[in-house]
Each structure stands twice: as C-alpha cells, then as structure tokens.
Design brief:
Structural class: alpha+beta
Largest sheet: 18 strands, mixed
Shape: globular
CATH superfamily of the largest domain: Diaminopimelate Epimerase, Chain A, domain 1
Distance between the termini: 6 Å
CATH topology of the largest domain: Diaminopimelate Epimerase, Chain A, domain 1
Number of domains: 2
Number of helices: 6
Helix content: 10-25%
CATH class of the largest domain: Alpha Beta
Length: about 260
C-alpha cells in the first residue's frame, strides 16, 4: 500500500522554522494502530490524517505515542495541502474533529483557523512542578487538559529548562509557560513529554487557552504572539468569545510516498 505524504512547517514563512507536521490525505480511514505506527515512524510532534465527507473533511491527529483531540499546526498544514496540493477552491474549509467542527479560511497569503476557546481557571500549583520546570512559579491555571503558567517576562520563559522525565510523571498532557513579549503581545513555550513531545515548536491548541487569558489581561481582542522554541513561530490571534482565530503561514518542505508492506 502506498500513501501520499506531505511535510509542512506551520506558523512560519521559512524552511526550518515553525512546527513541522506530517499530512496524509486518505480516501478512507486506516486502522488506528497503523496510523499510530505511521506517526511514530514520522517522529514529528503530530501527523494529521483526513478523509473526505459530504461537508468537507474529517481530521485526526497523532503524536508519536497517542492520538490527541486537537492540534492547530497540523490543521493549518492540512488546510495548506488541501488548498495547494489537492486544489480545493471553496472557502472556508470545514473539518470535523474530536473537538467539534473546525474551519480554516484564507488570510492574505496564509490561513486562519477558527478553533474553540478554552477559558483558563486558577488552580493550586502542583507539588514538584516548579522543580521539574526549573523555574519559580507564582500562579497556575488549567484550560481543558493543559496547565498554563504565567511568568514575569520573556527572558524567564526562554530560561525554562525542564527535566522531561520528572515532568512526564507530574503532568498527563501538556504545560504552557507564557509571559508578555518584548516585541509581541505575548510569548510562550509548550512541553508535553507524557504524550511523546518534549517541547513542541509551535502549538496552536495551546493558544486556545492563551488567547482568552491575554485578551482579558491586556484588554484587547487582537494580539500578536510568538512561540519562542528553538525553531520559533508567529501567530496572529483574535479573541472571539467562545472561539479563537489563529492566523499563520506555512512552508512546504517534503512531498513523497509512504510504502507499507501488505
């Protein structure tokens, strides 16, 4: 069996920046175990698979170890493939998913995701979390299955140096660290070793929580964000109440065929 695959860097205009995603269009679903094995073989933070439906497409996302309910960068990458490689010309693109209906529209020379917002709620700082991250923590929030930790400034976010083995034992899904940015409204980093991603380069799903938080804190609905991983990525964000808009560009890197023995 041969499958077409694309590797696309999301939330960047340049090669070797942003977050690389695997994108595999399908005519019908493969067995879950096979899709998980393909994602593990790709060893990217996420590989997206999608199949056509009457209304658009149904999309699923896999890290190297688990299926996840929402992924921003691989959705952006998938929309770019649908647009540029499959030559779909009707907008917005509609994608059914485990997180409900998602849409992707054109935004200049890039794309804009419409995702569900995740309102952060204050909680106690889990014991051992500060030591696992290697930084001081003053407050902690939870949004969906993500912990969000505000830090004083961009330098503090850049200095976080997690012990990934300890962090994986403390947090089932992911941890966001964030602060006001020096040149953008806010910056962030994202760690999820428990699901096979030590540090994710650019995390659209994390911004479903970051956008409501920073919109309220800064008193503005439109924000510029940067995830300051080693690759880095830029997002244009908009707080829409129960939804968030996330704008970004992509850079195509690889196109090829996967051959799987019968």
């Amino acid at each position: 069996m041969d499958l077409k695959m694309y590797q696309v860097a999301a939330f960047t205009r340049q090669s070797f920046g942003g977050n690389p995603a695997g994108v595999i269009p399908l005519d019908r679903w493969l067995p879950d175990e096979l899709m998980q094995n393909i994602a593990a073989e790709n060893n990217l933070s996420e590989t997206a698979f999608f199949v056509p439906t009457d209304a658009g497409w149904h999309i699923r996302w896999f890290t190297p170890t688990v299926e996840v309910p929402l992924c921003g960068h691989a959705t952006l990458a998938s929309a770019a493939v649908i647009d540029a490689k499959l030559h779909h010309s009707s907008w917005p693109i509609t994608l059914d998913s485990a997180s409900g209906t998602l849409t992707v529209g054109k935004a200049g020379d890039g794309y804009e995701l419409d995702f569900p917002a995740s309102e952060p709620h204050a909680m106690d700082i889990p014991a051992g979390l500060a030591d696992a991250l290697g930084c001081e923590l003053a407050e902690c929030f939870i949004a969906r299955d993500l912990l969000m930790l505000p830090l004083p400034d961009e330098q503090a976010v850049a200095a976080v140096a997690p012990d990934y083995a300890r962090l994986a034992k403390l947090v089932d899904h992911g941890v966001i660290v964030t602060a006001p940015g020096d040149r953008v409204d806010f910056v962030s980093r994202f760690f999820a070793p428990a699901i096979g991603i030590n540090e994710d380069p650019v995390t659209g799903a994390a911004h479903c929580a970051l956008v409501p938080y920073w919109s309220q804190r800064l008193g503005k609905s439109k924000l510029a964000a940067r995830q300051i991983s080693s690759r880095g990525g830029d997002l244009g964000c908009e707080d829409r109440g129960d939804r968030v808009g996330l704008r970004g560009n992509v850079a195509f890197f690889l196109e090829g065929d996967i051959s799987i023995a019968d």
